[in-house]
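User: Can you model how zinc ion sits in this protein?
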Amino acid sequence: MSKKAVIVLSGGLDSTTCMGMAKEKGYELYPITFHYGQKHNREVEQAKKVAEYYDAPDHRIVNISFLNQIGGSALTDQSIDVPTDIDEDEIPATYVPARNMIFLSLASAYAEVIGAEAIYIGVSAVDYSGYPDCRPEFIESMNETVNLATKAGATGSRMVIETPLIGLTKAETVEEGLRLEVPYELTTSCYNGEEEACGECDSCRLRLKGFEEAGSKDPIPYKV
Ligand code: ZN
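Assistant: Here's the modeled complex, given as structure tokens:
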């Protein structure tokens, strides 16, 4: 029986690269995508296409859109705009309160149900927006927690949270993805979620810089 990995798949560049990396490691891929009350549905639509591309047998799309009842983020709260001016010293308004903790909790539940030994999440502590739930300390602590919280962990089937991008720059991630023939044309990164990416939000800027430094051209369309 082949080994299984749950992939936290947002339809973005990083999580899609994780699909390619987990596949290369010989895992059967079980992507899980969260509708967490984003203002737009684009991530979920692109994630479906990525899951199809990889022939993932069971793509779960979990609706936790009630997170917008908590709000507190430019991505989920209609009253907060997505910023284009980024102050490097501050955690930007696009931070979603405790998002990765919530995602990893649910991903670990899914991993337990299907007997997966790994959970992939595409966080990076290098080229990122300063989100606290992308730090290695958090991932380590969460890895301990999911094993303490689950029957799988308690009965000796420990699961591992894999973060293969944690030490990579965006350019290194793109290089790795290109080597693995990751379908970047199916991914979306723009916070605004339109047909053409804005090219100006923090996420677009990081992505464009990554492709540029990797000496490659981003295959998705941009407004500017
Ligand atoms: Zn954008």
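A couple of observations from the model: Helices lie at 13-24, 42-53, 99-114, 136-149, 151-154, 170-179, 202-213. Residues 190-192, 197-198, 200-201, 203-204 surround zinc ion (CB under 6 Å).
User: Helpful, thanks.
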